[in-house]
Design brief:
single chain; mainly alpha; Helix Hairpins; two-stranded antiparallel sheet
Length: about 220
Amino acid sequence: MEKVKSTRGELLWRKQQLQLAVQGMELLKKKRDALLREFLPIIDETMKLSLRLERATQEAQGALAMAKAVDGEAAVTSVSFATKGEVHVDITGTHVMGVPIPVIRKAEAPLRNELNRGYSLTGVSARIGYAAKKFEEIVGTMIESADIETRLRRLGEELQKTNRRVNALENVVVPELEEQVKFIYSALDERAREDHFRLKRVKKKIEKRKLAIVE
């Protein structure tokens, strides 16, 4: 235990520190519980989105394989070179329980019609167009996934940090301050008993001197 002075001033200061530590611990526990309430539904949402992305990827890969098998890999490769486009996203920010979190949204839908994909409709089969559409759907799901996973990571990091602070206060700081307060109380009580015993001895000596003078 840290060496402390057994004075009333020190006792008052340690009690104030203990009170602040307990209040801080309770506030952090409330924050931790609130973060947990936000965090758990996002885990479910992330898992569902992950399954959606997995299914979309499988469908896109299947459509691409079909296009290559029927139309030939050369035709698919030629269309891929002709296809151009950009995907724009809007990145803003929000706060959840005081935690800054980026918000990622599609600035425009990644899905395009056949006229906007950059290749000529003549000579391109519906299979290739379907494969292109499926891969465009993946892009939209990936943007959603990036948004939800960023939120999950930020909340998870803050939850871990808050939990560490709660554990430090609950298991180290508060017990140590309680022990220090208890020690000072004990030392002051011991000193008070010694002072009381000393005063009794002094009183007895004074009374003996008075009797001696009277006699």
